[in-house]
UniProtKB/TrEMBL annotation:
It is found in: Cell envelope. Keywords: Coiled coil, Membrane, Transmembrane, Transmembrane helix. InterPro entries: Peptidoglycan-bd-like, PGBD-like_sf, PGBDSf, UPF0194_transport. The chain crosses the membrane at residues 30-52. It comes from the Bacteria. Residues 1-10 have a biased composition (Pro residues). This is Peptidoglycan binding-like domain-containing protein.
Length: 461
């Protein structure tokens, strides 16, 4: 077969050799491309493997960490059980001052004419709290509320209370016997009113005239006795003179200043505190002009039914005023027998004070007088409801478990060897998250040992 290609240098057809070289070169290029592709695919597969994981690998990487045992140390401590309540500080006496016009005053209206104090001010004994229609209302020391006008000649415990109060201010009742409004008490009342800048009201507006008439009667009777001849006339004149003198003594005893119920308020202690003022000078006096608190400060706490049995009279209490940081100590003075609803003690339910949805009132008596600025403040009360007798072995409540046989135990954990041993214990006082334990075998649990309280997420049991 004759080639139509030009002959090569050796007389062979040039086209065939050329074709053979070209074919080998092409196949090498294909092979190199295949190898390069394989290398690229391999590299790509290795790179992808770094990011693509099997479902099993994904589950392992997304799962929780290996289980770690949670432990707590066994402590040698006093266990205290406490109950935390909210409470409010208030005085043990609150008095509302309202206008009560004295019966001897002839006034068309009762108008506020002076207001010496503002809400929050302190008030000393013997000071005028408010003036109405020119007449004072002052505060004296006493526990018995005023219920009548105290007039010369009166007798009673309320008179004795007024005598003591005036005596504290420097105005003693002189020679009067205790509880009798005599001449000495009248002098004390006169002197006290003069000290505050007022004239006392007379017990009887006509008293002076009655005394004068009685004095005239004594004068006439004395003259008649002098002029009477002896015998029966003299005797009768003497009787008339004696009768006139007795009438004069009675008139003088009844005459003088009084202590009107409208002008005095008795408070248990001083300094007192003006809580509210609901009046302004020049306005007509209406109900509840002022509210005054007095006496030692006490604290009332609110206790829910679920914890009532934990709080008893005599338990120690820590008082904390969170707003100011002031703290004090006291004791539970009383716990109401029935729950209180709407400010009044409920009488519904059985005699045992069944829970009707209200709260029980816990009265706390401070060890020392509380500062006056705490009056009206909300406080936190921590009642020590129970305590162990001295230091005991104690563990967190979560460290104690019960078996099927009902026996309680703790699991002691050795972090070095990861050994665990279950130790049977009996439990005692609990409080604030801890419980006292006593191992059935002496020495099997000691202070400082680590006990298992749980496992972190991912534990197997």
């Amino acid at each position: 077969m004759v080639s139509d290609q030009p002959p090569g240098p050796e007389g062979k057809p040039a086209g065939r050799r050329a074709w053979t070289r070209g074919g080998l070169s092409g196949r090498r290029r294909v092979l190199l491309a295949v190898v390069a592709g394989a290398v690229l695919l391999s590299a790509g597969g290795m790179t992808a493997a770094a990011f693509i994981k099997s479902p099993a690998d994904q589950a392992r990487s997304a799962g929780p960490p290996p289980a770690d045992v949670l432990t707590a140390p066994v402590e040698h401590r006093v266990i205290k059980d406490s109950v935390v309540l909210r409470g409010q500080v208030s005085a043990d006496q609150t008095v509302e001052i309202s206008p009560v016009a004295a019966g001897t005053q002839d006034t068309a209206r009762v108008v506020v004419t002076k207001l010496p104090y503002r809400a929050g001010d302190t008030l000393a004994g013997g000071k005028v709290v408010v003036e109405m229609s020119g007449r004072p209302v002052f505060a004296l020391t006493g526990r018995l509320p005023v219920y009548r006008d105290l007039k010369p000649g009166a007798d009673g415990e309320d008179v004795a209370q007024a005598q003591r109060a005036l005596g504290r201010l420097g105005y003693p009742a002189g020679g009067d016997r205790k509880g009798h409004f005599g001449a000495g008490t009248k002098r004390a009342v006169d002197r006290y009113y003069a000290s505050i800048g007022y004239e006392p009201l007379p017990a009887d507006p006509e008293g002076g005239a009655e005394v004068a008439a009685a004095q005239d009667a004594v004068t006439e009777a004395h003259r008649a006795w002098q002029d009477a001849a002896g015998g029966r006339r003299k005797t009768r004149a003497a009787e008339d003179l004696g009768k006139a003198r007795r009438a004069l003594a009675a008139a003088e005893a009844a005459n003088g200043p009084m202590l009107p119920a409208s002008e005095v308020v008795f408070l248990r202690g001083f300094p007192a505190r003006v809580e509210k003022v609901n009046a302004t000078v020049g306005t007509e006096a209406k109900e509840k002009l002022l509210t005054v608190s007095a006496g030692s400060l006490v604290v009332d706490g609110d206790l829910d039914a679920a914890r009532k049995d934990l709080v008893r009279v005599g338990q120690r209490v820590e008082i904390l005023a969170e707003a100011t940081g002031d703290s004090a100590r006291g004791a539970v003075a009383s716990v109401s027998e029935a729950p209180v609803q709407g400010g009044e003690e409920s009488t519904d339910g059985d005699a045992g004070g069944a829970d009707t949805g209200g709260e029980y009132v816990v009265k706390v008596s401070p060890d020392k007088p509380l500062p006056g600025e705490l009056a009206g403040q909300d406080v936190r009360l921590t009642v020590a409801a129970g305590a162990s007798k001295g230091k005991v072995l104690a563990v967190p409540l979560s460290a104690v478990s019960a078996g099927a046989d009902g026996r309680t135990a703790v699991t002691v954990y050795d972090s070095g060897s990861e050994d665990r041993r279950r130790v049977e214990v009996t439990t005692g006082t609990s409080g604030n998250g801890f419980v006292a334990i006593r191992p059935r075998t002496d020495g099997s649990v000691r202070a400082g040992d680590q006990v298992v309280v749980g496992k972190r997420q991912g534990g197997d049991g």
